Amino acid sequence: MELDIVGLSRLQFALTALYHFLFVPLTLGLSILLAIMETVYVMTGRPIWRQMTKFWGILFGINFAIGVSTGLVMEFQFGMNWSYYSHYVGDVFGAPLALEGLMAFFLEATFVGLFFFGWDRLSKVAHLVVTWLVALGTNFSALWILIANGWMQNPVGAAINPQTMRMEVTDFYAVLTNPVAQAKFVHTASAGYVVASLFVLGVSAWYLRHGRHVELAKRSLTVAASFGLAASLSVVVLGDESGYLSSEHQKMKLASIEAMWHTEPAPAGFTVVGLPDQAARATHYAIHIPWVMGLIGTRSLTGEVAGINELVKLAEVRIREGMLAYDALMDIRAPGGNASVPPALQARFDQHSAVLGYALLLKRYVDDPRQASAAQIALAAADTVPQVAPLFWSFRIMVALGMYFIVLTATFFILSARRRLDAYPWLLTVAVWSLPLPWIAAEAGWIVAELGRQPWAIEGVLPTAVAVSNLGIGTVLTTLIGFVVLYTILLVVEMRLMLKAIGKGPESEAPSAPGIASPLIGATAALRGAPMISTE
């Protein structure tokens, strides 16, 4: 990545998004786990399940608060660093974000307060409804965000207005039902469930390994293993769906993930490991499994997975066609032009408008794409190849960890069914040391999704290089450093709060009566180092 204004703006957004995504998956998954635990409490009336819900609720609350504070900056960056992007696609992109705020975040934020302070003020069933509404709001929030992000990957239901130079919604239902967005939502949500399950699994294993809060730990392990196994399996299935959709809508991303430089005869093989060399357009020391990539990418034995070199040639063709669209666009927007566009001119633009974005790739090399040379067209076509090595390895790290999570959760699921969760102390240690791994897998997945889209801010529509604000490098660099410092502090604060709460453990459950401390009061006591009631 070049450290010019575009590179620095990309780096700033990438780092803030990576920081924010440390908190989002845990919030998604813990909200569902809390609802499951409280449902068992309401059905059985056993205080241990209420104790579990309140304890894990404290950790959910800490993570939720830090996650919200890191997420607020994300939307402001669209106006700060990506002003032309906001102008170009704001009519489409703004609607899901507005719905996320109005429909999901307000629901989540309203009921999260009732979750914490309503234990002794609401009936069991009413509080259970509140907990499920928190979970629903949390997941709805992710849905709208991923509808917006999915549209960036596959821009459907919208068209460019050549007079305003803005993308405008033509079919909002198509935006909502975008298959890429739906696949991203269920895949991302399932990944969040895995993160939360492994978090509960690891903390509970630590308690069990040290003989603390044994009853809570065993029940939490059982819930986490069961839910985590189902989520881990679903991640694999839904990830396969994402791969299939990439073969339809993002062929270059799929080819780069595989480091497939040339189109292979169907069905293409899958490269297990290798050393991608982007300069040489080759993958050294590659180990292949026949047919697998063809089956994943096309779900057939005859479908072809396009190679990078062939896709670059196709991009060059689209750039040349896009230049025709750009020429018609300039005629439409010519100074002194009529308010109404002549039908013949509009038809000329409409004929090629679908590939206008490819002409904009030339803006990196020439002010007027119509004046581009053959060499500049070739350079712009070559820019459609993202950074292959990071994509190649991020995908394989994600997949390898996904397989490991299936094995780990399945093992504890079997041990739970046999009532032998504490039979193998070394397995509990493995679970504890596995705590960071789901976050690594989630961040690797984010890198695959977003880095694989480059050089596009909006796939095939708006190149990243023309989407940035007109800022100085010093301004972006200063804010980049500031955000990294601030977010690092927030991350340290989160970890300290989490470790304090985990170290103190859950509150003991007594009959409901006025004056019993709420989970937030217990968390505050933990932070101050004050004595807390424990079940030890």
Key attributes of the depicted protein:
536 residues; 69% helix; 3 domains; two-stranded antiparallel ribbon; two-stranded antiparallel sheet; 19 helices; mainly alpha
3D architecture notes:
The chain starts with a helix and ends in an 8-residue tail after the last helix. Strand 1 and strand 2 form a beta hairpin. The relative contact order is 0.13. It folds into three domains: 5-252 and 386-528, no CATH class; 264-298, no CATH class; 308-382, no CATH class. A two-stranded antiparallel ribbon has the order 1-2. Strands 3-4 form a two-stranded antiparallel sheet. The chain has 536 residues and is mainly alpha-helical. Mean pLDDT is 89; it is low at 511-536. Helix 2 runs antiparallel to helix 3. It has 19 helices and six strands. Helix content is 69%, strand content 5%.
